[in-house]
Amino acid sequence: MIDKALPVILRKPSPLLTGPFQSGITDPQWPVSPPEAEGIDQQRYAVERAGRINPQAFLTVVATDVSANSREALVEVFRRLNRFAQHEMRKPPSVSNLPVLQQVPTTYRVTVTIALGSKLFETAEGHDRYGLNGLRPRWLKPMPRVIGDSYDPINEMADLLVLVASDHPYVNTAIARSIAHGFVDKRLQVRRIEQGFSRPDKKEFLKFDDGIDNISNANGGELDRLVYVRTEDGEPDWCVNGSYLVWRKIRENLPIWETMSEKEQETAIGRSKSSGKPLSRKSTGPGGMTPLYPDPKDARDGSLASHIRKVQPRRSGLDLLGISDLDRRFLRRGYPFFHGLDETGKIQCGLLFLAFMRDLRKQFEWPVQMWQTNPDFPVPNTGPDTLYGKGILSNVTGGYYFCPPASPQGEDFVGSGLFVG
């Protein structure tokens, strides 16, 4: 949609395959400033691109356990998985999935991101399988149950989560198949594979733009600041430049949603369906996409139970813990999914929700438990987030994970800092 509105078609940014961070978290990313070319709509670039991620077209989530019987065997599994990931991200596109005479793209922008689950450090029974529990990331634990869950997170925990993203679905399928069939390492035992896609207009099945006010580096580098662990965070040394990952598969109940009028849908979300702008009386930021709530208890700025007011009240000043509401934001990377019919004949569709953040407790658990699902926030009897309160959304699987920093040069691998010393 953007490229049609701009006289100049900009080349999509490429993944970052070198640097301190794993690929596929805050990249591919548009430059903060547009390239020097005539015809670029500067205002639209600022609203929709500047410093923002440009997610690939397809996502595959591979949840896998590890059957390595020793610490040394686990290192070998990590090495093989890292070599495989690096090979897939760096190899040139194949012509095998293209029609005859069609031009071969220079890249499918492949990223393979590896995340570790709490079960790798300590099982639900309290067993430290590989002697790593003393190095567990500070806030990594099993995901607690909340309003809207239709599953038990304890039963869904995986040792590793591998996120595969690219601009071609066959690429994702081939990578997921290699992991599932043991071509990478037979000790990787895949328990779930989920596949999602993106739309050019960024909308999902509710027909709203997911993450329209996502964080970006155009605002003083807040993307990197809010996503990656720093030395002062009290984490184990190996976690620096890593990121916490919250993964959820969120099912959307379209029969309920589609009985609601457009005005009711906008009230539930807190934004205009056509423009994406907030329903607040005043707004700020590029294109006016960021709401302003002078008083979080004032319903004149939209329903107090609307999604955007429950997940980010944007109060002025600091809270009782000395933290600004704006520092409790995180990076969203969501992909719609469509998985046909369930056993009752109902459509299965929704959003594969990925959220990356520097501090799991501050940036995710607090907003979810104290705001989104708290029926008495911001005032008594407000109710939970309307989308969950009315059964429009339900969480069907998910978990907490930690993405280690990128592997250094040489023989190291993603997660190698766990085994130093």
Automatic annotation (TrEMBL):
GO terms for MF: heme binding; metal ion binding; peroxidase activity
* InterPro entries given in the database record: Dimeric_a/b-barrel, Dyp_perox_C, Dyp_perox_N, Dyp_peroxidase
**Where along the chain is composition biased (Polar residues)?**
272-283
The Dyp-type peroxidase N-terminal domain sits at 56-197
According to the record, the residues making up region (Disordered) are 265-305
Q: Which GO terms describe its cellular component?
A: cytosol
Protein keywords? Heme, Iron, Metal-binding, Oxidoreductase, Peroxidase, Signal
Q: Which NCBIfam families match?
A: Dyp_perox_fam
Q: What is this protein called?
A: Putative Tat-translocated enzyme
- Tell me which species this is from: Candidatus Nitrospira nitrificans
Q: What is the lineage of its organism?
A: Bacteria, Pseudomonadati, Nitrospirota, Nitrospiria, Nitrospirales
